[in-house]
Amino acid sequence: MKIDKSPFDSNLLVGLDQSELLLSKIKKWGACLEESNVWVPNTIFVFAKVKGFDVEKLKRFLRSNELQEHKRSCEFELSIILIVDNSLPEAWSLLELGISDVIYFKEVNEFVNYCKDLKFQNSFIKNILSSQLVKSNLIGCSTCWMEFLKEIITASISGKGNIFLYGETGTGKELLARFIHTIDKVRSKNNLVILDCTTIIPELSGSELFGHEKGAFTNASYHRDGAFSLADGGSLFMDEIGELPVQLQSEFLRVLQEKQFKKVGGNFYKSSDFRLISATNRNLIQMIKNGSFRSDLYFRISDHSFKVPALRERREDIPGLARYFLSKALDAPLDETPHFDKGVMEFLMHRDYPGNIRELKQLVFRIAKNHHHHHLVTPGEVPLAERAKIPKTIRFEKEGHLYEIMKKNLLSGVNLTEIKRQTMREAIKAALDINNQNKHLAARSLGITVRAIQKFLQKENESNEEDSKEEGKD
Ligand SMILES: Nc1ncnc2c1ncn2[C@@H]1O[C@H](COP(=O)(O)OP(=O)(O)OP(=O)(O)O)[C@@H](O)[C@H]1O
After folding, report:
1. In this structure, is residue 5 part of a structural domain?
2. Mean pLDDT over residues 462-472, rounded?
3. pLDDT computed for residue 313 by the predictor
4. How far is the CA of 59 from the centre of ligand 1 (A)?
5. Do 192 and 233 meet the contact criterion of CB atoms below 8 Å apart?
6. For atom 16 of ligand 1, which residue has the closest CA?
7. Disulfide: which of 14, 258, 404, 471 matches 18 by Cβ 3.0-4.6 Å?
8. Considering only 53-57, 130-134, 147-151, 195-199, which range has the smallest mean pLDDT?
């Protein structure tokens, strides 16, 4: 088996006996990543026969400096999957050492087919991610969003199982439901039926869900197909599924289980085969606990369950999203859309968005209304009512960052007086830096007097001098 060439493009299959050669290759790949023509695998399959399997050798390989160094620097993504021909008791301990998975194959052919599927799946996912469909509709390039999309695509293209999306309001659940339907090769040929569960009234909505026969009730002068019928062969998106009235939950569960239902006033069962995509911003687990949502229905609807990230978890995507919405608001092509001035972008980046992407969209649309044909969107164009929302509390890149710093300091014996002094010093330094060392402007942004700054700096200098005298004595 050769090491340079892979039969499966991005994957590499090597025998465990080649691990030393592999280590030197890993080093080489790490060193020449800049060269675009160098082939680098993203998954390495290590092949071993269970009989005579040398666990120690594999452990040595996993603990080797080259591999550890590679993992630390994370220059390229690499997962190592162990392929064995039978069940292996050490599998769990190998996972702890960094193997991504252990897969059993009785025959080589089985493995070859697996790789072909994987290759097909990987290239399919890559194609979708770089497609116009994603680039022009599902904006975002943060790692968090890309990983999330990959998982969504994997579940969608499998064609099997119902998909459940949960997350805060305005995170893009409906947009994702449409996307899931579109990339589902089989179902996209048929309808996507959208049902908003907040509008369902148990006594009146039977016909909307199940349809009705002519004459089923007083005003039923013609027969009507309901959502379950219309979605046959396609997808049914039930938005806000947490709002589905309890009375209808058991009937709906039966439809999902048996793929059959009766129209209102009908005598025969009609079959319907659809993929259910449902979404909610409510906590269904809590609703199950308090009896307002059936747990058996929950398990039926969530073969694949995804938490859609909130905008605050993917702040890096704000610039891209904001420019995208601006292009929509101004009805201009993206490359001709004005950029945001640095100050406006800072404002957009640091603001809170309880309504997530919807709120950002609405804000950008309001800014666009004030925009006057200039190549930059300027701070004066941000509506007055919005400016007040600039947060006055300290912001840290990572939540809990300040807490961690405090904990570390307190554990090493630093008390509150010292913490206050150091915080004050850093704040004054920062205020002077951003105001070109102008003490008056620095004092204004700190909300203290110039005298207070001078006093503090003087005190600092004195204590520094004392410290250096002490050091001199030592
Ligand atoms: N990644 C994205 N790229 C571009 N637009 C997006 C993205 N995500 C959401 N949007 C836009 O944000 C708005 C809100 O999205 P959507 O209605 O899908 O959210 P939701 O999670 O279903 O909200 P709710 O829970 O309130 O029903 C829509 O106008 C949608 O087009």
Report:
1. no
2. 69
3. 93
4. 47
5. no
6. 172
7. 14
8. 53-57
From atom 31 of ligand 1, which residue's Cα is the shortest distance away?
Answer: 175
Instruction: Pick the atom of ligand 1 nearest to 145's CA.
Output: 1
- Write out residues with Cβ below 6 Å of ligand 1: 138-140, 169-175, 239, 281, 357-358, 361
Q: What's the CATH code of the domain at 44?
A: 3.40.50
Q: Which of 407, 451, 408, 409 is nearest to 428 (CA)?
A: 451
ipTM of the complex: 0.98
Asked if residue 407 belongs to a domain, the reply is no
Question: What is the extent of the structural domain holding 426?
Answer: 412-467
Q: Torsion over CA of 385, 387, 389 and 392, rounded to 10 degrees? A: -140
Is pLDDT of 6 > 50? no
Judge if 212 and 114 occupy the same domain.
no
Domain tally for the chain?
4
What pLDDT, in 10s, does the model give residues 240-279?
Answer: 999 999 888 998 999 999 999 888 888 889 999 999 999 9
Residue 91 lies in a domain: yes
pTM of the predicted protein model? 0.69
What DSSP line would sit under 435-460, residue for residue?
A: TTT-HHHHHHHHTS-HHHHHHHHHHH
For the chain, the average pLDDT equals 83
136 assigned to some structural domain = no
Cβ atoms of 421 and 463 closer than 8 Å:
no
* Rounded distance from Cα 353 to ligand 1 centre (Å): 13
pLDDT class for 219, splitting at 50, 70, 90?
A: confident
Query: By C-alpha distance, which of 148, 153, 162 is closest to 131?
Result: 153
Residues 158 and 292 in one domain: yes
Q: Are residues 122 and 207 in the same domain?
A: no
